[in-house]
Design brief:
GO terms for molecular function: methyltransferase activity. This protein is of the alpha+beta class and about 100 residues long. The chain has three helices and three strands; from the N terminus they run αββαβα. It has a three-stranded mixed beta sheet with strand order 1-2-3. The chain starts with a helix and ends with a helix.
Amino acid sequence: MNTEEEIKQYLFGALENVIDPELGIDIVNLGLVYNAELLDEGVAKVTMTLTSMGCPMGPQIVANIEQELMELPEVKDTVVDIIWNPPWSRDNMSRYAKIALGVR
């Protein structure tokens, strides 16, 4: 793992294990994760959004992100930055997520 892009893909791979409890699809395929990076101190920083501002599963999703990333040997700590701009839309979802949820 050398380049930022390789590290990002590595972190995204771990984040694919985090399932949105309401939709049953992982947060990467839902398009909720905008960025993931490993900072110098071994801090994994995830920039993401939720499907809605009032999403009741937000704290659970964040806890699951922290749990998955802390299993990676390079990760010493995690920071999850939830942003609302740009807002999430169905257009962010992967083809897989759209098919699984029956979205056209």
